[in-house]
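Ticket #305: bound-state structure for NAP.
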Amino acid sequence: MELYDVAIIGSGPAGLSAAVYALRAELKTVVFERDSMSGGQVLNTNEVDNYLGMPKMDGFDLGTKFREHAEQMGMKIISAQVMQIEKQEGNWKVITDGETYMTKTVLLATGTRYRKLEIPGEAELSGRGVSYCATCDGAFFRNREVAVIGGGDVAVEDALYLSRICKKVYVIHRREGFRAAPSLVSRMKETENIELVLGFVPEKITGTDTVDGLMIKERDGEERRELSVSGVFVAIGTVPVNEIYIGIVASDEAGYAIAGEDGKTQTEGIFAAGDIRTKKFRQIVTAVADGANAIHSIEEYLTTG
Ligand code: NAP
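RESOLUTION: The complex was predicted; output attached.
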């Protein structure tokens, strides 16, 4: 069986940046992505306005450029879900839903997935009015009334995006202060068809075939309101995609792989880059930097052991 120097799991900005650095270093490299064109969360971002040199860049276009760059370098990418990684005689076995591969090192770059509200109606109406991606689904709600849940960058960006398509956008956030960048919050507050509902949490999403309402409750009080909306966009953050490394790599209480800027985990031969590793600031630019740093560490590991 062929033995790779590095198997990169994930094809978001961290994984693709790592692929470029690995190929430049002439490492025998293979990249795994769960779906063809997985590409990470950047692909679902409406506008990225803080990636240096690319002002007001469409997220999908930026993600596509990342991929094209790695492909031009000769990236070998396999569309398969990695089910398990296992140590075998000093190397690592990567078991996918298709074939099995052998590699000297593994770079985890599996990123995060959307956090769920876990309230009645959410799962039942998912894809039928409940969405986790405004840029993917917003167009279905033209001239309708919708709600966005959350107070981070994603929620506020989603609200701004939807305000250009929908008749009205409610932003439901559990407290007065926002986590999102102040410039985005100012733009949101100046947008006429956005109504902020602060200090409230969602309780139930209603509807039979499709969403027809959202019930919300005051977080520190008893007041309840029912909003007549046909779409509910959930933007309450993300959780790590960690199923393949739990029990193999040490993680923090939230499930992120414990690794410093050098990408080294506490398990020999396994490295982590991007949103999946413990860090304070999860951004495209920090994920790209992680990819480069991790490959530098992998090169050192492969030459010095
Ligand atoms: P986030 O910053 O973690 O914000 C999540 C929001 O959801 C918070 O406002 C939080 O409320 C709220 N929330 C969490 N659990 C909730 C629950 N069960 N019920 C109701 N509300 C809940 O997540 P994000 O907006 O997805 O952003 C993730 C990361 O990507 C951040 O680091 C962000 O800066 C970054 N990002 C950057 C850009 C950019 O730079 N262009 C764009 C998008 C995302 P509290 O505030 O009360 O905790």
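RESOLUTION NOTES: The longest strand covers residues 100-108.
TICKET STATUS: resolved
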